[in-house]
Amino acid sequence: xxxxxxxxxxxxxxxxxxxxxxxxxxxxxxxxxxxxxxxxxxxxxxxxxxxxxxxxxxxxxxxxxxxxxxxxxxxxxxxxxxxxxxxxxxxxxxxxxxxxxxxxxxxxxxxxxxxxxxxxxxxxxxxxxxxxxxxxx
Length: 137
Ligand code: 5GP
Ligand code: ZN
What we know:
Bound molecules: guanosine-5'-monophosphate, zinc ion
Low-confidence stretches: none
Order of helices and strands: HEEEHEEH
Structural class: alpha+beta
Shape: globular
Mean pLDDT: 96
């Protein structure tokens, strides 16, 4: 997909209006149009990168600092009880918009949002094999 056709490029750079809660030279933070909970927001880099793999290292490091700042603001203003950071990469992971974005999902006790997964029960050998695979150069 060309950058010119990317909806989050257009939103991040102000060509399409959005409910913006923060903006600087590098990022725009917007409210999600289909929020999981009240205050669900997305951090969008203004420079197009498809996903975490494509994101420049400097942007990757700054995005978490910004998430921390937004988390504090959400706790203070929304009085949320918790917060999930979610970041999907690839169709298999549920990414629907192919421009990197970090979800900030404020959580409220008994908000009914279910993000649980079923836990596997790998053997020690299976864990060891994966551990080795991911540790080796
Ligand atoms: P993904 O599934 O790719 O991680 O998340 C995409 C998110 O973007 C979804 O939560 C969806 O509600 C949100 N979204 C999609 N299109 C728009 C839009 O045009 N404006 C806003 N504010 N959010 C959008
Ligand atoms: Zn884009």
